[in-house]
Structure formats: structure tokens, C-alpha cells
């Protein structure tokens, strides 16, 4: 058994939050939010095979988040190295100006980071997160931002910083044909015929994740959503159902990362309620 806690460790908010079942819906929600940045979503649509590999991008993102949260320091750096290599080699074309888009542009990396971690803060689903703990979470997540090539000093590290960042970004965000592609896909990911039960089970979750967006983001998408009470009830219900699954089973998905961390560090590393 090794004592390598990796990038975060059991005493961080990140360690507890990222093991919560609400992260499954939050991850989908973050993709809707990311799609509102015209250059970021153009880069995804032009480079990703998400339409040929349903659930692939979400699972890859989940694996990266889990590895950098629960893996050893070496595993986190190796995962980040792969991501940085991909970002360096891929480009896209701005559909409006024809200009080249580099996937490692700091503005795009920062947008993806903030859209993810802001969506992961799952208080609406019932995760017990105080204002001070949410500030700690955003500050901790600067470490993840540093892994993908951002300067942590340039990354929002508190609730106020994050709110200011989104306020500055909103004039640049809008619905585009590419964001419609992402919206339509996330509502019907077109899984292969053999995965039809999984697809049917996903459909209400896809719209629940959309409905969990901030009101301003839903207005930009311009699509109807579940009512606020239905959304809150759905998020809480999803989380309660997930928590009903024993930890020994739940912590093995995706990719066994949490369970391997517990095996590495001992039973005291098991995610537990925040204090």
C-alpha cells in the first residue's frame, strides 16, 4: 500500500464531490454549457467522433476527471500529458471567420475548465456543500487547470471569481448550428441497437441535465426545459438512487478509480460526507 494521495487527497472537497452520483448528470450538463462558446463547440464538432461513438466523449472526460482526482501523481500527470498532446495537434476552422482554431488556446481551455467545474458543484442535487467548501473546491480545481496547460493564477478560484468570469463571457456566448448539433445529440445519443436499453434510460437524464443549466444558459440555447421544481426533484432523485447502490459497487464506475484509491491509501480514504 502506497501513501501517494495524488493531486488532491481524501481531505479535499474534490475527493468527496467527484465520487458523488450527481456527477453523472453534472457531466452532461457541462457539455451543454460548453457548447455555447462558438469557437469551443466548433472545435468539438470538427474533431470529435461523438456521433460515431455515443457516450465516448463523456466517458473519456469522466475517466480523465477520475484519474486526476483519485490516481497517483504519476497517473494524473500521464493523463494530462496525453490531453495536452491531443490539444497541441488538433485544429479547427472558425465557421464564421475561417480563422484557425487551436485547441490549446488558453481561452478555450479556460472555458472548458470553468464550464465543467461550475457544473460539477452539485448543490441543487442535494450534495451538502457550504459556500466556504465551494470556494475551496474552485480553488482546488486550479490544480486540474494547471495540468492541461493553464496558469492556475489565471483560473477562477472562488465563487465570486467564477461568477465574474461567466459575467465577462456571456456576451461571447450564443446558440449556433454547432451548439444545436450538441443539444440534439445529448438528447438522443443514438447508441447502437444493442445498447437500446441504455439509450432509453439515458433520454430523461439528458433533458434533466439540460434543465439544470443556469437560466441564462437555457435562454441562449432557446429550448424548453423541465420546470424548476421538477428539475430539482429529478436531480435529488437521481442522486438518492445512486447513493442506494453500495459504495463497493458504485466506486468501481467509471474505471474503478475510487476503489483503487481506497485500496492504495486504506479504508479512511473512502469518500464520506464533508465536515
Automatic annotation (TrEMBL):
Its EC number is 1.-.-.-. The keyword Transferase does not apply. Transmembrane segments: none annotated. The keyword Oxidoreductase applies. Residues 15-227 form the ER-bound oxygenase mpaB/mpaB'/Rubber oxygenase catalytic domain. One of its GO terms (molecular function) is oxidoreductase activity. It comes from the Bacteria. It holds the Pfam family MPAB_Lcp_cat. Coiled coil: none annotated. Keywords: Oxidoreductase. This is Oxygenase MpaB family protein. It comes from Saccharopolyspora rosea.
